[in-house]
Amino acid sequence: MNSTETLSNNSVNDTGDLIPDESPFAEHWHQLKRSKTAMAGLIIILFFVLVAIFAPVLAPHDPVIQNMEMRKTAPFASEYILGTDDLGRDMLSRLIYGARISMVIGVIAVGIALFFGIFIGLISAYYGGWVDKVIMRLVDIMLAFPYILLTIVIVAVLGPSLTNAMVAIGISQIPRYIRIVRASVLAEKENDYVLAERALGASDMELMFRSILPNCLAPISVQATLGFGSAILESAGLSFLGLGAQPPTPEWGLMIASSKEFVTSAWWIVTLPGIATLLAVLGFNLLGDGLRDILDPRMKD
Amino acid sequence: MDEKKLLSIENINVHFNTRRGVVKAVRDLSLHINKGETLALVGESGCGKSVTAHTINQLIPMPPGVIESGSVMFRDRDLLKLPLKEIQKLRGTQISMIFQEPMTSLNPVFKIGEQLADVFLAHQKMTKKEAHAKAVELLDLVKIPSPEKRAMDYPHQLSGGMRQRVMIAMALASPEPGLMIADEPTTALDVTIQAQILDLLTDLKDKVDMSILLITHDMGVVAETADRVVVMYAGRKVEEGTVFQIFDNPSHPYTLGLLNSLPSNEKYSDSSRLEAIPGNVPDLLSLGEGCPFANRCNYADDSCEKSFPHSTCIEEEHNIWCHKADDVKKTKGPKS
């Protein structure tokens, strides 16, 4: 109950004016700033987001142009700062464009999962009864498949491509969001303010989306942040298996897959995309955990 | 329907089907509220007061709730027969409601100004700016200091009394308020704030010309605000009359017990203890056909267990439902 304690002290300054309290957002931001790991995560994420946005400006070379004379150049040995891969393409540029692809994957996969997860979870929890039972059994069925297997099956049905990989990752993440949304809506809908707003004439739709949903955003945003990281990791996995991005797309997982035989002779071609993936996922996980510490009341002391 | 009557409930029965059986929460209840009056619905916890209130604006969760029979006439329409859409239009415009727990009855993630404006926007065509101006106006009406600033506050930044004022403001956010249902509006508040809120309600009632259905278990609140009183016990109406009739000439044994259990200054001077009604409220699952108060009543005999009594008229508008009305009248003599 940290937040209410610090917030309800509406102090009065010398002139007698009320000093307004902060909004919940500002309050959480203050708490977040105090968490070093969450801030580290946020900085990493910001770095990747900026790199993704300004990829064309930042990349010194075209990521797909091959320079056959400069194949497998070591890092810091030539104009190619991070070296070149087995086809003489600039590693740095490929990594930079890879960041762009990874961010897009995260946004689309999480977007799909969020959209359906929130909608289905809300309806399931709000209406309850047989609607809830049917939806939850379907979710159970989806969760009964090993997660990566489910994704692979969906890609196999849709056909291997980067877009389909994003859709597949999004779809297989839906059940988690349904469960999280459902759980928090079940708790929220029993609150007096829901009854009060119904007594003031709010319809079911208004109650679901305008009253209850905003109160459930905390756990959803934690899951979305963590889900973003796992979406990046999974798309790298799918591309590694040849089910995601196709050559010559500079996708990190694909870069690892297509150069794995050089792991002893030209380590940087395999290692650098691996490090990039690791950093990006780490950033989202750190931020997600930090958010959970702040937003989940059960984690508070 | 009588011109004077705003709301008239006839013989409603509300049941809840639970795993343990059918809970008869409200039985054969009839009451009416005249225009511009405050009707107090009195009784102890679990006697069906809130269920009655929720029957009026159809907030009873169904299932497990069932409204078995009866009618709720409001402005010449039977609310029990209206489709949900129509009920939703009435809620918050002609029938509004305030709740017992001001601490939890406001949505924690929205500023109170926004919540108030939303009520306007839900029922009337106006711009957001107009709605906000109206919201501030209402906050002023319910006597919240510096309403422009307070409109920008979140609920957790207000005290309980302030929040209850906001709830009242929300209930007033309508072009034609008719009935306000106040479900124990002061129970969660400090005694000093209680008086303020009750004054405010009475004040507003005259200002905007509405009727109030005041649900309470506090006879002090009743004395202060009500015009007429309906006393309920275990889902049944047991006594009905004007506030003066009820306090000067309580005629049902249960009402007598309720009033005797009030602490009063006289009693303190006698240094006597508070009187309690012996026994407990009966289990609503296993109610028979008899008078539900029989097992706690000093006057009761076998006939009380057999059937629920017909009404006995004590004086004009003052009725009780008791087999032993005459006995009660004789014995309580000096008390009234």
Description:
- The complex is a heterodimer of chains A (301) and B (336).
- By secondary structure, chain A is mainly α.
- Chain A has a single domain (32-53, 89-299), classed as MetI-like fold (Orthogonal Bundle), CATH 1.10.3720.
- Chain A has helices at residues 2-8, 24-34, 36-53, 55-58, 91-127, 129-144, 147-158, 162-188, 192-199, 204-212, 217-240, 252-258, 267-295.
- By secondary structure, chain B is an alpha/beta fold.
- Chain B has a single domain, classed as 3-Layer(aba) Sandwich (Rossmann fold), CATH 3.40.50.
- In chain B, helix 6 (160-172) runs parallel beside helix 7.
- The two termini of chain B are 35 Å apart.
- The A-B interface holds A 4, 7-8, 10, 18, 20-21, 23-24, 191-193, 195-203, 206, 210-211, 214-215, 217 and B 57, 59, 88-93, 96-99, 101, 104-110, 118-119, 122-123, 146, 149, 152-154, 156-157, 167, 170-171, 173, 181.
Layout of strands and helices, then pairs:
The complex is a heterodimer of chains A (301) and B (336).
Chain A: H1 2-8, H2 24-34, H3 36-53, H4 55-58, H5 91-127, H6 129-144, H7 147-158, H8 162-188, H9 192-199, H10 204-212, H11 217-240, H12 252-258, H13 267-295
Chain B: E1 5-18, E2 21-34, E3 38-42, H1 49-56, E4 65-74, E5 77-78, H2 84-90, E6 95-98, H3 112-123, H4 128-141, H5 147-150, H6 160-172, E7 179-183, H7 191-208, E8 211-216, H8 219-225, E9 228-233, E10 236-242, H9 243-248, H10 253-260, H11 265-269, H12 302-306, E11 311-315, E12 318-321, H13 325-332
Parallel strand pairs in B: 3-8, 3-9, 6-7, 7-8
Antiparallel strand pairs in B: 1-2, 1-4, 4-5, 9-10, 10-12, 11-12
